[in-house]
Amino acid sequence: MPREIYLVKVGMTMTEGMVSEWFIADGAAVKKGEMLYSLETEKVNLDVDAEMDGIVKHTAEAGVMLAPGDVVGYIFAADEEVPADFSGVASPAVAVVDAPKSEVPAAAVSAAPEPIVAETIDGRLKSSPAARRLAGELGVTLVGLVGSGPGGRIVEADVSEASLQSSGTAMTQAISGQTQEALVKASPLARRLAAERGIDLSRIQGSGPQGRIVQGDLDQAPSSRLSATPAQVGPLAGSSVPVRGMRKTIAQRMHQSLQTSAQLSMDMTAQMDDAVRLRGQLLKEWDGEARPSYTDLVIKAVAKALGQHPMMNSRFDDTEITLLREIHMGLAVSVPEGLLVPVIRNVHELDLKEIAQESARLATAARNGTLGLDDYAGGTFTISALGMFGVNSFTPIINQPQTGILGVNQLFDGLTWDGDKPIKTKQMNLSLTWDHRAVDGAPAAEFLASVVEFLSEPYRLLL
After folding, report:
1. Is 436 annotated as catalytic?
2. Is 351 a residue of the active site?
């Protein structure tokens, strides 16, 4: 019996997603562990591997929104016969129309098969939702585009290529018998950003799995877009930004969090002179192995404080409060589309060097779009850092069903007093938001005071 290929569920809150790209063609062979398809949800893009060797049969087209757990295809064992008419799920009827032929030599016609343009039975162009979204963002018309997806479907790569051609940065070499998808391996996020920045992906060396181009590879790439003015960063004034994808999810969850819990906030100041000295020493000691940040020190301090105040590492339900055994620290990371919260698992069992290494890995993977399924799972407390933007205080919103979230602010020059003598010191404000349904103000303040104490006496973070 063939094995089902499911649309993988990423996290408990995922409600829909799609196969944005099939890496293995319909009817082609795959080996266990090879990249099978790219999953795109409102929060993340990630690659899904094949779980066995065999022949791949698609039953879901790229770009079609489905529910997590839906079957998107099958893998037949090598000794199994694949029925010629096997479909698994009925697909919509399409009318395939020959593209207009141009006057070219017969040799050229035989060397390169003619492209096809796919239309639905009602005459509409057949394109993926992601392609239509990108076309709207880039101002590309779908009429006249030749789709490279299944059945001639227009996919994101076709829109990206059209955008690059219109801006004078299309690839100059002729592509015969192959699509750009086959020549350049890139994540959907990387393709979208490349189109927005005018970057030719064929000139980029990918650092992802099997040389796949990811977001991080584009950061140092020069833009090839021809423009007499500096590139516009973000949306233009006077324009509107659709509320969808990750932004829609963030808006819904933040609003729901405030509506369904009793959130209060408080600030407390930590003396950071010793922490500054400790970090400087560790940067020298761990040179080439880890680069601890002040946020890493806070993560370790919070992990220790949660061990002393277990009510802050809990989940509130209508009939009970569950105190959690493990401490899994969520780390809010800003990405172009919004905010991701990868999780450092069992942070209470890690030393400071391991925390620095893992937080750096997760932050880089989040920005590169290469986070794995387990990187999002099971956070019990969250840390959100805005200190790098010069923020001295803010009110973070709880990532439900957690009980608390801690905001990390900038390091600043403060004053303490030795009698009547002022002394300049390094200080940092910490902003705690907690759910008053689970924890009252006094124990919340005691927890925050413990975090401040660990940061003021940072040698304890090494024990």
Report:
1. yes
2. no
